[in-house]
């Protein structure tokens, strides 16, 4: 489906201090059918402290030795930018020079068909202003009768792609974003209160997180944008082991990777109501009963306690 004269979109991979995760992410990514035709840009953030310096250096050694791609470029930051600033800067750089980008972080393993999906979707909707984001991950929506791909409002950040035309709408200023919300928009933004998206905005304002992703979703939402999503996930996050910047030890978001190519893309650019209800149902029940939540919290605290010993 990729035009004969079109090159695959560049891949931006953001890494920090997790060599094992980075190796696994790269091992799956290079098995993708379009890997050998794709340029890979590895953005390596500088160490926050001397304690992180050795692991950052180990990750950079892995990056230097990467093969299996058309070209590999390592962008090694001298200072620590933080994940949010690193992603914003790297995505802005690549869309300004290539017009589009595929984005990975260092804890995402992918189906062999992931790059094909991203590139076909980028080409298919390149002139559709309303389509602003392509997601590679989707929640485990059991028994949902959905087409291969569908449109939804939220921009999921575990493996994604976009265009320069959409990224120009990214608003990093949280005050500007907040000023455009009212009660009804907050309700719709948070999938009728089933997901803590609005709390993430408030936490960012309070300095409790530094998420680029929630500001990007808010930018998409406030511009009336939609995101394309697969009904079976092409991405699985292996970072829910407590090792990531914003990760906890979680299992509710685990998925089985898609084993086939995606060939169907919706003709109508509108949110799929069946998908919306399926996602809302999953989000409202994802944490289980009160007892299940307490047991999970106890397990997380136990693991964190012994990991510090």
Structure description:
The chain is an alpha/beta fold and 309 residues long. It contains 11 helices and 10 strands. It has an 8-stranded mixed β-sheet, sandwiched between helices. A two-stranded antiparallel ribbon has the order 5-10. Residues 244-249 and 289-294 have low confidence and may be disordered.
SSE layout:
Elements lengths: L10 E5 L3 H11 L9 E6 L5 H15 L6 E6 L6 H16 L1 E6 L2 E3 L3 H11 L6 E5 L13 E4 L7 E4 H4 L6 H5 L4 H7 L7 H9 L6 H11 L3 E5 L4 E3 L35 H13 L4 H18 L2
Parallel strand pairs: 1-2, 1-4, 2-3, 6-9
Antiparallel strand pairs: 4-8, 5-10, 6-8, 7-9
Main β-sheet description: 8 strands, mixed
Beta fraction: 15-25%
Q: Could you give the order of the helices and strands?
A: EHEHEHEEHEEEHHHHHEEHH
The Rg value, from CA coordinates, equals 19 Å
Helix/sheet category: alpha/beta
Mean pLDDT: 91
Shape verdict: globular
Number of helices: 11
Number of strands: 10
Tell me the strand order in the biggest sheet: 3-2-1-4-8-6-9-7
Question: How helical, in percent, are the residues?
Answer: 25-40%
Q: Spans of 5+ residues with little confidence (pLDDT < 50)? A: 244-249, 289-294
Distance between the termini: 53 Å
Main traits of this protein?
single chain, 309 residues, alpha/beta, 8-stranded mixed β-sheet, two-stranded antiparallel ribbon, 11 helices, 10 strands, 15% strand, globular
Task: Describe what is shown at a glance.
The chain is an alpha/beta fold and 309 residues long. The chain has helices at 19-29, 50-64, 83-98, 114-124, 164-167, 174-178, 183-189, 197-205, 212-222, 273-285, 290-307; strands at residues 11-15, 39-44, 71-76, 100-105, 108-110, 131-135, 149-152, 160-163, 226-230, 235-237.
């Amino acid at each position: 489906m990729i035009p004969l004269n079109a090159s695959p979109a560049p891949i931006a991979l953001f890494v920090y201090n997790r060599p094992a995760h980075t190796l696994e992410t790269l091992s799956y990514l290079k098995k993708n059918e379009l890997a050998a035709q794709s340029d890979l840009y590895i953005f390596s953030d500088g160490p926050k402290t001397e304690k992180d310096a050795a692991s950052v250096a180990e990750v950079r050694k892995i990056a230097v030795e990467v093969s299996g791609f058309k070209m590999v470029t390592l962008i090694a930051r001298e200072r620590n930018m933080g994940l949010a600033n690193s992603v914003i800067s790297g995505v802005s750089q690549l869309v300004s020079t290539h017009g589009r980008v595929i984005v990975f972080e260092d804890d995402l393993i992918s189906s062999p068909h992931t790059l094909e999906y991203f590139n076909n979707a980028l080409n298919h909707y390149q002139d559709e202003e309303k389509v602003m984001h392509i997601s590679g991950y989707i929640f485990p929506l059991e028994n949902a009768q959905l087409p291969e791909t569908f449109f939804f409002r939220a921009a999921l950040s575990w493996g994604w792609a976009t265009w320069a035309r959409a990224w120009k709408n990214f608003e990093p200023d949280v005050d500007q974003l907040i000023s455009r919300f009212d009660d009804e928009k907050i309700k719709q933004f948070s999938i009728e209160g089933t997901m803590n998206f609005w709390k993430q905005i408030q936490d960012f304002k309070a300095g409790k997180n530094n998420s680029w992703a929630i500001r990007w979703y808010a930018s998409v939402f406030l511009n009336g944008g939609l995101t394309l999503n697969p009904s079976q996930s092409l991405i699985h996050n292996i970072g829910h082991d407590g090792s990531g910047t914003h990760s906890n030890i979680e299992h509710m978001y685990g998925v089985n990777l898609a084993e086939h190519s995606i060939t169907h893309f919706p003709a109508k650019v509108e949110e799929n109501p069946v998908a919306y209800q399926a996602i809302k149902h999953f989000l409202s029940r994802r944490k289980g009963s009160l007892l299940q939540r307490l047991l999970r919290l106890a397990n997380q605290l136990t693991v964190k306690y012994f990991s510090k010993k």
